[in-house]
Amino acid sequence: MKNNNGFVAYEYKNITVKRDTATVYIDCLENFGWEPVEDDGYELQALISKLNPVHLGTNIAHAAQSFGETGDVSETVTLKFKRDRRIANKQEIDKLERKCEDALAAIGGMERKNNAYTMGISLGSGIVGTAILALSVYSFMSSNVVIGVLTAILGVAGWGVGFFANLKLGKKKSAQTEPMIQAQLDVAYSACEQAHTLLAS
After folding, report:
1. Higher pLDDT, 153 or 65
2. Can you give the pTM of this predicted structure?
3. Euclidean distance between CA atoms 176 and 164, whole angstroms
4. How far from each other are the two terminal CA atoms of the chain, in whole angstroms?
C-alpha cells in the first residue's frame, strides 16, 4: 500500500528450504503478498509432478506430489521475500499463510520419514551382507573354500536384498502416504486461493 508520495513500507521474510521444493514455496508465498527479492541466484530445479496442474490465478504453477524425492537433504536454499507491511486483510492473510506453511512442512516430514525408513532397511541389509563377506574372506584364508564360497554368495545376496528392498519399500511407502500428501496439498492450495482472493479484494 503506497501513501500519497509513493512510499511503500516493506517487511521482509527469509526461509530456508530444500532446493527442489523452492519453486512451490515461491509460488505459494506470492499468494500472501510476498515478492521474491532476488531469485537470480536460486538456480531452482523444476519440480516433477505426477498430479494434474493446479492453477490459482497466475501465481500457482503446478502442485508437487512429494517433497524430498530428489536432491540431497542437505542441499538447501534461502529464499528472500518482501511485502508491503500495510496490505489489506493482513491478519487473515497471515493466518492462512501459517496454515499453508504447516501443510508444506507436514509433506516434507512425511517424505523424510519415508526416506529414513527405506534407507535404514537398506543399510541394515548391506551391513549384514558386508559382515558375511568378511566371514567369507576369513574362510578362504583358513582354506575353508566351500564355506568361503557359500558365505560369499550370502554376502552378495545381502547387498542385493538391500538394493531391491530400497526400491520396493520406497514405492510402497510412497503409495501409503500419497493420500495424506494429497490432503496436505489441498490444505496448502486452499489457503493460497483464499489469501489470493483477499489480496484481490
Report:
1. 153
2. 0.64
3. 18
4. 13
Q: Please give the pLDDT value at position 1.
A: 55
Distance CA 126, CA 134 (A): 12
Q: CB-hemisphere CA count at 13 Å for 139? A: 17
C-alpha cell recorded at residue 169: 519399500
Helix 90-141 crosses helix 145-200 at what angle (to 10 degrees)? 170
Rounded to the nearest 10 degrees, what angle do helices 145-200 and 22-30 cross at?
10
Q: Which residues contact 101 (CB under 8 A, 6 or more apart)?
A: none
Q: Are 62 and 161 in contact (CB under 8 A)?
A: no
Residues 145-184, buried b or exposed e (16+ Cβ, 10 A)? eeebeebbeebeebbebbeebbeebbeebbeebeeebeeb
CA dist 127 and 120 (Å) reads: 10
**170-197 pLDDT per residue, tens:** 777 778 888 999 999 999 999 999 999 9
Backbone angles phi, psi at 79, to 5 degrees: -95, 135
